[in-house]
């Protein structure tokens, strides 16, 4: 048995694929299999996969018609034989110790899920920066491993629903019958959230091990206006399942509501089409807020202060005015963040200047 199966869905990513594959085949954990699922690529991705397969016997290449990332991940999962399985994206890249650190942590804690931190790579600027949302340390319990009873109010909030920062015990996934949805977008929501809910032993690696590419217009996020209702479909499926499960307490429900509200706001922010934005706003305001029990709660029910204000404004404004409100809100927060950064740079710079002055002073 391999220690880890890496499942890599691939669709039209020829400009990023070699960097991704290089970071996978050079992992310090060598006992792995790499299952690449070509999801009907029409560019040179398929040829790149075949070239890498010829060089590394650990690589397997599967081909299918274009059925989107969820179906590709499911196909790879069915073919996997490793003790653990991880679902990485083919336009990202990974620290060379990523699999080893996750594997060792899961083995030490006998965990069913291992979660790590991550960084973002802005595809437009090349800037790489850490993002706390992938592993929010403030929401973690002191004990490791843990499960939903240890952090019921933050179960769905200490990390995001992305698949690439989670190593899963394959036996756990198969026993629970978990599969990715075949939605064009948000196909990872059901899988990730139900895995976190059902797991009895979750552990973490606090180091950022994945570099996630953003602002890629070819990605699913970049095409959010084409798939604008997928988000609400995905969370509806999760809620239907949760309401049938024991352990879906009021605190877990609050965690779920906060996760949904965060996702709805993000989906509005990523729209690139005005009509899609207007349709989503109407759907969220008139249906989703009540359906997911986001509205009608006491003020502190929403954890984030800014998101509490966003909720108040959505309930009182129309779509056009809410869009203007969001623009002004983002602008104000950007100015505040920029001001803080300049202050820090000024303080740091002054210290450096003083140190240099002491070093270069006469007699030194």
Report on this model:
The structure is a single chain. This protein is 46% helix and 16% strand. The chain has 364 residues and is of the alpha/beta class. Strands 1, 2, 3, 4, 5, 6, 7, 8 and 9 form a nine-stranded mixed beta sheet that branches. Helix 6 (189-198) packs parallel to helix 7 (230-242).
Descriptive tags:
single chain, 364 residues, alpha/beta, 9-stranded mixed sheet, 11 helices, 9 strands
| Secondary structure tally, helices | 11
Q: What percent of the residues sit in helical stretches (DSSP H or I)?
A: 40-55%
Task: State the separation between the terminal residues, measured CA to CA.
Answer: 63 Å
Query: Low-confidence runs (pLDDT<50, min 5 residues)?
Result: 220-225
Overall morphology: globular
| Average pLDDT, all residues | 91
Helix-strand pattern: EHEHEHEEHEEEHHEHHHHH
- Which range does the strand content fall in? 15-25%
Task: Report the count of strand segments.
Answer: 9
Radius of gyration (Å): 22 Å
Judged by helices, strands and strand pairing, the structural class is alpha/beta
Instruction: Please describe the biggest sheet, giving its number of strands, its sense, and whether it closes into a barrel.
Output: 9 strands, mixed
């Amino acid at each position: 048995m391999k220690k880890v199966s890496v499942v890599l869905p691939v669709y039209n990513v020829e400009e990023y694929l070699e960097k991704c594959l290089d970071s996978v085949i050079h992992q310090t954990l060598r006992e792995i299999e790499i299952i690449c699922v070509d999801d009907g690529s029409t560019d040179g991705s398929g040829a790149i996969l075949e070239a890498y397969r010829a060089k590394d016997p650990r690589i397997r290449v599967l081909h299918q018609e274009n059925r989107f990332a969820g179906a590709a991940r499911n196909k790879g999962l069915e073919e996997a034989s490793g003790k653990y399985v991880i679902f990485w994206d083919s336009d990202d890249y990974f620290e060379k110790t990523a699999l080893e650190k996750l594997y060792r942590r899961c083995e030490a804690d006998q965990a069913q899920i291992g979660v790590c931190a991550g960084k973002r790579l802005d595809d437009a600027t090349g800037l790489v920066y850490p993002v706390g949302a992938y592993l929010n340390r403030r929401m973690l319990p002191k004990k490791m491993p843990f499960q939903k009873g240890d952090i019921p109010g933050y179960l769905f909030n200490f990390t995001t629903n992305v698949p690439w920062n989670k190593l899963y015990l394959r036996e756990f996934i198969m026993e629970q019958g978990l599969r990715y949805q075949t939605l064009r977008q948000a196909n990872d929501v059901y899988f990730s959230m139900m895995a976190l809910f059902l797991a009895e032993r979750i552990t973490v690696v606090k180091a950022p091990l994945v570099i996630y590419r953003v602002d890629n217009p070819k990605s699913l996020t970049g095409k959010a206006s084409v798939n604008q209702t997928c988000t609400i479909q995905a969370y509806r499926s999760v809620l239907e399942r949760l309401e049938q499960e024991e352990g879906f307490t009021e605190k877990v429900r609050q965690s779920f509501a906060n996760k949904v509200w965060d996702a709805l706001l993000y989906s509005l922010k990523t729209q690139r089409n005005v009509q899609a934005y207007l349709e989503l706003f109407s759907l969220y305001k008139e249906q989703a807020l009540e359906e997911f029990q986001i509205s009608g709660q006491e003020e502190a029910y929403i954890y984030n202060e800014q998101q509490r204000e966003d909720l108040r404004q959505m309930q009182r404004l129309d779509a056009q005015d809410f869009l203007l409100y969001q623009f002004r809100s983002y602008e104000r927060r950007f100015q505040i963040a920029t001001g803080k950064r300049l202050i820090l740079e000024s303080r740091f710079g002054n210290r450096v200047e003083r140190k240099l002055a002491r070093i270069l002073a006469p007699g030194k």
